[in-house]
């Protein structure tokens, strides 16, 4: 691992809500890696693990479009331990190399690696602390059957196939209980972060670092001031990252723009999946807001709101610039923006002016990107796309 980093290994069994905790740690300034998400990318057509998987398990594990049917493959490997071991022998070295590359490029000091099999992998040699996310068995079962659409029998097979959660808890430095109350989960994550990094803060370090969890590095998005120019009078905008403490402010602005009721709890639940950026004027009035996430090196923007009384192009430019800056800090390779089909043409043109182009699935050249775009597109949204970096961590072969 890169010298000077503090590495948190984040683990826990299936459906305990590890990704929610990982997202919260990202809010606090960590660079986060989803090892299981990288596994999916490693199996995409052209990616390093694709051909070995097809050779090992046969073409019947493929969909009609040639992609690996993870449900079919999962039903095999979770029924036969030998098959699971062979799959892991193919995928784990590829994912491990990808993680090393990402960490080597990361600028953040704190690195979080989420891996369901952290304790059994070579990654354990490199972590400074193990954080385990826990949930009640009935909560796991409910999440698998309701959110992932598994049958109860399939869900129980997945749960039984994994190392007992008690083994992971026994080796943990931090335990986060995530049984569904997102505010309670956030409080636990924040408390553990502050305790960890205040304890290691050098004597005499400035208070500003204490506010950042005891770390001297900046958040991915700070109060970067952007003077947005255009044909209309320039707005003096500054962009800041929304945090759970801003949940009421965010909810009120979305309610104002959409004329639909949104409350604090709606936003707190969203914080387990995404981040928010706020565009504000010199009086700190919110003029625009976007909800976005970087998952598996892909940026997805699924909320974009602008106060109708202000110049749209200037707010779009400022927010997209901030999204891209934050996305590059998180090593995203591509940015997708999804807005309602009712979005005014001048707003869509503002995205084009900012370097985006209309998204057509057939034009997306990489399978992982295509899959992400396909999941978000519907008859009710328009997609836009911009490639953020030429080099890819999961290089095709």
Please give a structural write-up.
The protein is of the alpha/beta class. The protein folds into two domains: 6-199, P-loop containing nucleotide triphosphate hydrolases (Rossmann fold); 224-387, Gcn5-related N-acetyltransferase (GNAT) (Aminopeptidase). 41% of the residues lie in helices and 20% in strands. It has helices at residues 18-27, 35-42, 50-57, 70-77, 81-105, 137-146, 152-160, 165-170, 182-199, 207-211, 247-258, 264-270, 312-329, 345-353, 367-376, and strands at 6-11, 31-34, 110-114, 129-134, 174-177, 224-228, 235-242, 275-280, 286-295, 298-306, 334-340, 357-358, 381-387. The strands form two sheets. Strands 6-7-8-9-10-11-13-12 form an eight-stranded mixed beta sheet, with helices on both faces. It has a five-stranded parallel beta sheet with strand order 2-3-1-4-5, with helices on both faces. A hairpin with a 6-residue loop joins β6 (224-228) and β7. The longest helix is centred in the first third of the chain and has 25 residues, at 81-105. It is globular and about 65 Å long.
